[in-house]
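Students often ask why we bother encoding 3D structure as a string. The short answer is that it lets us treat folding as translation between two languages. Here is a chain of 224 residues written in the first language.
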Amino acid sequence: MKEFWYLALKDLLIEFRTKQMLNSMVIFSLLIIVIFNYSFSNMLYKVEIYDIAPGILWIAFTFAGMLGLSRSFASEKEDGCLDGLKLCPVDPSAIYLGKVSSNLVIMFIIEAIIIPLFIVLFNFKNITGLSGLVVIVLLGTVGFIVVGTLFSALTVNMRTREILLPVILFPIIIPLIMSAVMGTRKVLMDGSIMSAVNEIRILVVYDIVFLIASLLVFEYIIED
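And here it is in the second language, the structure alphabet:
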């Protein structure tokens, strides 16, 4: 656990000093929310806000998260840092969990900024479903980062990793995104987390299965 926390802290300190990924992710997700809000508010026909807003929210999360994931292991390639990590007397799973933790913290910061703006721009007056929304976002983000971090390590040695990562990642996270969008829609409409129990179950199973699988295969992923 000590090695895992040290590795996560290292990544977070580097990011908070430079703020390269954080700034770009915030700006990109804000642009998505604002542009979609402006587009749908000016449409000639009525659009049910509960039908479009959850999808827009998760588009912002996944696209912004993709920017961070594409740089997650790429920064370790500079000056042979990844080789140094592999030479350290730590279990490879500690490296993976450290990366997952730092990526999660950054994503949670992004989501903490985006969700209030999302509620204001889309004029959600019924905020009783916010607790359910937090649960859905938490579970969806964990699954997205768990899988995304693994595939980021898989593509780190490829020249076209920024293009290849979304191509191989999005088919894997389709069940996660579909469940997260449907769960978000239900809790925003009904204001109760119980209305999205089935989606929450899918998200929990997805997170557990892919976390265990990632821990088992990560050692072989980072081998040359």
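Translate back mentally: Residues 2-221 form one domain. Keep this in mind for the problem set.
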